[in-house]
DNA sequence: CAGTGGTCTAGACCACTAG
DNA sequence: TAGTGGTCTAGACCACTGA
């Protein structure tokens, strides 16, 4: 385990356990260096991680403080809060509608940077949150990378399987979103009415080496969809 | 000017000028160290900045590569791409509907962490993109921080004025969003129909020292609203 | 002006990739 | 196995905050 990762985890746990609120002051750098017996840069690296994650903010000349917003029930749009945490917190579940190997659409091939003759796994599923429909999801996985999928895997967390099971390292994602009206088919799956609002999200996920491996199109139920983003400016 | 900031700017310009595409390889760390005559950590810091900004990705054992998505016309939801760039690229304009000093609503006071007896600047404006209505925006600025505003300022970029004019340093923002249907009033302002879809975004902006100074509620025209997010996972 | 976080260095060693 | 980026150190110096 990386030292800075470990320090970040410890600090986050500490904040969680002691239920520290926005603005609570953490120990100064000197103390953290001594406490964990590491150099200044290592502590700094850990704090940068937490800052990116939206857990703390640092003020030069003053100290390190807890950052925590007041609202519950919002899903993080940047999945930097951890997959497992999300799954637990929101009791997500899935129902699989389709799973097969096929040729990609032109659109999918373009986004995955493959030929329309290459194979992809096609996954279509509905996701539920607290027992309500959350979204309708269609995904294309490059088969030469994600070599095997089955119904059991995709009912659980696909990404967890990709990292743990296949030993692949996920790097980054490009996500595009806009708002529109539900088509009849989407409305039926989400148990809403045609013409109701929807949030439509397309994402291209890449491995750490930059190779795209998943192109997904997700239509969210507007009633259930509350998102948040913590940004540094 | 910070060295790592300068290096990051230079590299970004280089990529822009040479129109490097996704996957293009940049010089290795050694070369960048020599080229800019700085230590390894400094180059690393510059590259971390660019990585966070979604400009490059690094692969251990392999190199540093350009990251660039293929879609145009999408607005970045994390304003980490720079305000000025956005304004230029999208030809944003504003029409002011209201500007006054008043007492905050309970909601605004709560989010700004002030008393309902404190003064706030209230701003209501419509923003246009390429001459079309983009959004309807209501903002509350803590008056003790943002001490002065006038119509001219808020017709241009408020944030630019806050940093340049008032010399304040903006730190981070918490943003909450969901999808809903337009009310009659919103529809009128946005030149759409009541019941049409909308993207509704609430943000709380904080100074670098953690103090909230702006609570804003924005309703986007669904036709014009295309957003993207570049995330690291 | 004491104390805090931010920048930067020089160098050791490690983990991974690709030929 | 040579070359690449990632981690970590110890320490100097700088910029900012708050009493």
From TrEMBL, chains A, B:
Molecular function in Gene Ontology: DNA binding; DNA-binding transcription factor activity
Name the GO terms of the biological process aspect: negative regulation of DNA-templated transcription
**What protein name does the entry list?**
GntR family transcriptional regulator of bglA
Its keywords, alphabetically, are: DNA-binding, Repressor, Transcription, Transcription regulation
Write down the CDD domains for this protein, in alphabetical order. Answer: WHTH_GntR
PROSITE patterns the UniProt entry points to: HTH_GNTR
Protein's organism: Planococcus koreensis
The record's SMART domains line, in alphabetical order, gives: HTH_GNTR, UTRA
Is Repressor one of the keywords? yes
In what residue span(s) does the HTH gntR-type domain sit? Answer: 1-69
